[in-house]
From TrEMBL:
InterPro entries for this protein: Cyt_b-c1_6, Ubol_cytC_Rdtase_hinge_dom, Ubol_cytC_Rdtase_hinge_dom_sf
Keywords assigned: Electron transport, Membrane, Mitochondrion, Mitochondrion inner membrane, Respiratory chain, Transport
Membrane topology: Peripheral membrane protein
Physiological role: Component of the ubiquinol-cytochrome c oxidoreductase, a multisubunit transmembrane complex that is part of the mitochondrial electron transport chain which drives oxidative phosphorylation.
Family label: Belongs to the UQCRH/QCR6 family.
Organism for this UniProt entry: Characodon lateralis
Domain Ubiquinol-cytochrome C reductase hinge as annotated: residue spans: 27-90
Composition skew (Acidic residues), residue ranges: 7-27
Protein's name in the database: Cytochrome b-c1 complex subunit 6
Subcellular compartments: Mitochondrion inner membrane
Region (Disordered): 1-27
Record carries keyword Electron transport: yes
Main localisation: mitochondrion
Length: 90
């Protein structure tokens, strides 16, 4: 907005009183996944995955991949998530 005198001076808009602070949106799926990753079964599978990744990255010439360990971990986590997520849906 320009003032009546100098066109170089700008007037600031007053903050709107109705503006509410926006809360950061949290994806409930991510929250449930984090909780499921802390279960005993998922912790064990994540440790196996991390162990495999450490073993593979320590070798310069290997054909080993950690696909099986990754799929086992993701399957266990998603199984837990499905039970928690859809239990609340009615």
């Amino acid at each position: 907005m320009l003032t009546h005198g100098d066109p170089d001076e700008e007037e600031e808009d007053p903050p709107a009183e109705e503006e509410e602070e926006e809360e950061e949106m949290v994806d409930p799926l991510e929250t449930i996944r984090a909780k499921c990753e802390q279960t005993e079964h998922c912790v064990h599978l994540k440790e196996r995955l991390e162990s495999c990744e450490a073993r593979v990255s320590s070798r310069s010439n290997t054909q080993e991949e950690c696909t099986e360990e990754l799929f086992d971990f993701l399957h266990a986590r998603d199984h837990c998530v499905a039970h928690k997520l859809f239990h609340n849906v009615k």
